[in-house]
Amino acid sequence: MKPLTESLSPQQVLVLGFAGVIALGAYLLTLPITSATGEGLAPVDALFTATSAVCVTGLVVVDTGTHFSSIGKGIILVLIQVGGLGFMTFSTLFALLMGRKITFRERLLLQEAMNKVSPDGVVRLVKYVTVVTLVLEGAGALLLFLYWLPRFGWPKSLYYGVFHAVSAFNNAGFDLMGQEFGPFSSLTAFTEDAAVTVIVSLLVILGGLGFAVIADLYRQPLHSRYTLHTRMVLTTTAILIAAATVLFFLLERSNPSTLQPLSFPGKVLASYFQAITPRTAGFNTIDIADLRPATQFLEIVLMFIGASPGSTGGGIKTTTFAALALAVGAVLSGNDDISIRDRRLPGFIVAKAMAIAVLAMALVVTVTMILSITEKADFLTVLFESTSAFGTVGLSMGLTPSLSLVGKIVISFTMFSGRLGPVTLALALAQRRRQATLHFPEEKILVG
Length: 448
What we know:
By secondary structure, the chain is an all-alpha fold.
């Protein structure tokens, strides 16, 4: 009889693997030792928290800093790291440390998990990803530790530095500042703090670029030698950050509850930070509930787009958004080919991007409709929560702690789908693409 993993597709193995990690994390969080009060979380709350951590989302029904003990916070930190890099990465590293050879079947699983088009060099990429992660998280932790040292003392600043560096690089959005500045405060105490803003935002950006892009930047110091994927990711990311920063500033500059009381540099810092974190990070230096409706909708759009393929972030991904934008541009300009930088995008890439966007939109619409029935909240608040869960962002307008039992289950499923859905769907479509042996006659229909 074949082992169970050999009878399952790579996508099924990944789904079951992530579900197993979540189940283990949920069980641990129900134990009394994980709570500061000695009372473990209720099963549904533990499931919600574990799902949010493994899916690197950051939505929480209880404040992380005040509710959990040091052991509970440590468990959440491990779940974030495992969820950000993927359980297959950790399994491979363990096998390599034990001196075991990685089989071809395991390489196919890694190909799926790492969002690569082929299994070639996937083990080498795992080693590279591990080193890069440790270096960047270590550097971020050190900088935050040194900056917070005079304020919090060395034991607490060290723990804060490590926790927030790991959370930021993995685009998780979990924070411990509730025990310093009040529950669910996130980083609102550092709105005009340039050091915290820059360190955390750089970790978020690097974690959201994708390891393939980071590897390309390291190997190819010259811009002209970057792959088309790297150039599209960097260009789209830069445009989104710049445009969102300007729009956030213009929309909120006169809002007395957000930017108006701040100095001009503070307004720019806050606008820059809130332009970055909606694309899957989940930290906030401005209270989201105080934003104007237009700004909240801007955040929803950014959350839906998300980070880049092969990263620790969610959403439909920047390259999906770019491919759709290029397709629209080609239609408006009357071009049959979709071209960028002297390269033509294959038709199946655009079709796959459209499938991902449509299925993602269908998920968000369905979840929003369900929450509109089960929760006592206005439509924009519910839409914001649904999109945040799908994009594995973690921002909320205050609905998460008051979610009903059905709401918690639905949002948990949405976070899980958002973490695995777009990547596994994209690779499944790519792997199942076959050259047609029979072509039916063409016939046009009217569209638009």
